[in-house]
Each structure stands twice: as C-alpha cells, then as structure tokens.
Amino acid sequence: MQFTNSLEFAKDLDANDSLATYRNEFHLINHNGKPCVYLCGNSLGLQPKRVREAIDQELKDWAELGVEGHFRGKNPWLYYHHFLTENAAKIVGALPSEVVIMNNLTANLHLMMVSFYKPTATRYKIMMEAGAFPSDMYAMETQALHHGLNPEDAIIELKPRAGEHTLRTEDILAEIEQHKDSLAIVMMGGVNYYTGQLFDMQAITAAAHSVGAKAGFDLAHAAGNIPVKLHDWKVDFAVWCTYKYLNSGPGGTSGVFVHEKHANKPELNRFAGWWGHDEQARFQMKKGFIPMQGAAGWQLSNAQILPMAAHKASLEIFAEAGIENLRKKSELLTAYLEFILKAFSQHLQIITPADPNQRGCQLSIIVKENGKQLFDFLETQGILPDWREPDVIRMSPVPLYNSFEDVFKIGVALEAYFETWH
Ligand SMILES: *Cc1c(COP(=O)(O)O)cnc(C)c1O
User: Fold this and answer.
1) Domain ranges of the chain
2) Contacts 24+ apart (CB under 8 A), 170-178
3) Is ligand 1 within 6 A of the CB of residue 241?
4) Which end of the chain is more exposed for a tag (fewer CB within 10 A), N or C?
5) Topology of 7-42+322-421 in CATH?
6) Does the C-beta of 129 come closer than 6 Å to ligand 1?
7) Per the confidence metrics, is the pTM higher than 0.70?
C-alpha cells in the first residue's frame, strides 16, 4: 500500500478497519483529558472493560457460596482451567489438550525444562539467543547449575554478525548443525523482547529435531502478537505470559504448551502437584501420582481464579476478533509506523527487521543522540512507548486498540521534537 503522512489518510484507514470497534473494548489511558497513544502493549496490555465483570462474577460466587463455589459457582472453580484452554489453544495453534493455563511464566519455563532438558555427559548444551530477556537467562543459567554443569560451557548464545542487530536464520541453523552432537535443547524467545525480531520457529524446531535436540520457545512477546502453529511445527514445549499482548492484567497467569507427542509419556521427568493428578481420582487423596493426559498433567496447584477470570475475558476478545485478522491489521499498522519513522532516519534507526515475516507489531528504535530525552518528550505529548536500556525505544502499535491515527500522531510529535530541539 502507498502510505501518506496525513491525518486524512490515517483516518481513512481507520474508517476502513473492520477491527476498529475493538478499541471501545478497552480502557484507554488519558493524558490531559485525551486518550494517549499507548504503545506499551508489549509490556502490559490495556485493560479490557469486560475483565471487571468476569472478576466480579467470581467475587460474587466466593461471597455467596464460599468453598461451594468449586462445584456450584457459575464457572465451577474445580474445572476452571478447562474454560480457557480452547481459546488459548487457538492463539498458539495447538490442540486444546496441548495447552494449560497456570502459574506464572518463569515458573512454567522451569517446569518445562525439568521435563525436556535432561543433559547427558555428551549431549548437554542449551542454545538461546544472546540478549534474551533476563528471566530466561537466569532460568537457563540455574538450570545448567542444577544439573551440575558450568553455564559458561553449557549455554550457547547466538549472537548477530558484527555490525548487525538481529540474527540470520541461516546462522541459527548453522549453529545447530555445528553443535549437533552436544546440543540438548534450543530454548529461544519467539519474538525477542529487545529487537522485536520474530524467529523462524518452524525451521529452528526442524533443525533441532534433525540433530536429536528438543525445541522450546518462550512466547512472551509472540502470544497474541503473531499467529503461531505450535502443533504443526512440532515444537516440544512453549510458555508465555498473558499480561503483554494478551491483556490479562499485571502479574497475570501464564500459558503452557506441551506437544501431543509428549502427552502420555510416563518416563518424562516432572515436578508434580495435586492439580495435575488424574481429575477423577484427585480427591481420593491417595499416594502415587497419575498425571492427567496432555498439558493439564503439568499443573501443580488449584487454579488462581481471579487472574484466570481476567484472562478468560480477554481471550474471548481474541476469539471474536480472530488472531489471523488481527495479524493482518497489525502488519499494516506496523508498516505505517515504519513509514512514519523513516522520515526521521537521520535521527533514528529501526533495528527490528524490515521483513514483515520477521517481526510482530513492535518496532525497536535506536535514537542516534539522547534517546532518553526524546522518550521523555514523547511522554509529555501523550505518546507512551517504552525505554529499554541501554538505548532503545520500543513502540508496539497493537491491532486491538491502536489506530492509524495513533501512528500519525507519533509522526507529529517527532516532527515537533526534531524541529525545535535539534
Ligand atoms: C516478560 C517476559 C518475562 C517475564 O517473566 P515473568 O515470569 O512473567 O515475570 C520472561 N521472559 C520473557 C521472554 C519476557 O518477555
């Protein structure tokens, strides 16, 4: 599409956007009485208005039924995770039995590593992208230590070529091949939080499997941002949080995917809890763990109803809008942002790949001088991106609640900044 930097053009795109009404489903943040341009959906998604009602329902059942809410609540708490799996599965391209909503992200990452990282004397290495989210780095580091290994030796970090900011798929695949005898697992982000690069999970999984390694992904920045096909790609496991693109509230719950092929493998190591035990026999309170089939067999504790109620409500919006439709709009919205930013390329460098197949909605921008100052200025103008040390501004226009007019306004603010301040 031929873009134009004008308010009229942006408004025209909004008028032709069949998803535009979803913006009304969210509480927009205000700045001086006007809605901000919120660009932090990659960090904490806005609150869907219907979340309050969903949580109120559970509070009401708790108030009126007490413990009986487990059986007689509108959504009986005993089975609560079942109410989320179908819609969650659609987002990650999984069978409902391959998905469970539980715990928090980093805890789930550890649980998955317990099952899928079983180092031997020769095959013990973990491959991840350099500059992964710190929680993932700490998780991998301590997983290696847990098995008596030296993280310096056990962890292979994939680094971009000199002078480049993102990884080339061919280089990732070559590294897998190079470590084919020692590689135990590839554990990467689906989308890197800093650069916004979307990795080719299908190719990476196939390469890992071809050398006898497992492949797992942290989809914190992918879930709800881009459609993925975990089942078809034969990914072994994946984990994600729900408070970023999935708009389920601060500290919200997390999702786990375990491929069907691992659904009934008693030999898989796992750290178990009573909620993962065979549902029919759970309350017999007997010795001897019998896992539920599929991902549900990895549950530890009884469901966290309040954060899961928020997630349930938010997932319904995704089910209605459709992740493929959202992606279509997202590609256009991000392409428009890229077009707007390119007018300032003497001051800004976009480090996120230009290829739409290698990115989600986020663009990461290095400001050549005084990035923090520009960031602070944008905030005064009601534009809310986020700042990541050392030098990146991340902007994530989200198709559910950001508009093309939002993106146009970013250009207006940048013009004001670079004209008056430089
Ligand atoms: C946001 C994010 C986290 C955060 O982990 P929590 O356990 O939810 O606090 C971890 N890993 C990645 C890749 C993230 O983007």
Assistant:
1) 7-42+322-421, 53-320
2) 172/199, 172/200, 172/203, 172/204, 172/207, 173/203, 173/204, 173/207, 175/127, 176/127, 176/204, 176/207, 176/208, 176/211, 176/213, 177/207, 177/211
3) yes
4) N
5) Aspartate Aminotransferase, domain 1 (3.90.1150)
6) no
7) yes
Residue pair 218/194 in contact (Cβ under 8 Å)? The answer is no
Ligand 1 pocket test, pick from 44, 105, 194 with the greatest ligand atom count within 8 Å of Cβ, gives 105
Q: How far apart, in whole angstroms, are the C-alpha atoms of residue 220 and residue 38?
A: 19
From the centroid of its chain, how far is CA 328? Answer: 18
Check if 128 has its Cβ closer than 6 Å to any atom of ligand 1.
no
DSSP state of 134: H
| C-alpha 9 to ligand 1 mean position (Å) | 37
Pairing of strands 392-395, 386-388: antiparallel
How many Å lie between the centroid of ligand 1 and the Cα of residue 241?
7
Q: Label residue 422 by pLDDT band (50, 70, 90).
A: low
CB distance 315 to 25 below 8 Å: no
Whose Cα sits closest to atom 10 in ligand 1?
Answer: 135
List CB contacts of 68: < 8 A, sequence separation 6 or more: none
Q: Decide: helix, strand or coil at residue 3.
A: coil
Structural element, H or E, at residue 118: none
Mean pLDDT of 368-382: 93
Q: Kind and range of the H or E element at 280?
A: none
Of 104, 38, 19, 123, nearest to 379 (Cα)?
A: 38
Q: Give the mean pLDDT of 111-119.
A: 98
Topology classification of domain 53-320: Aspartate Aminotransferase; domain 2 (3.40.640)
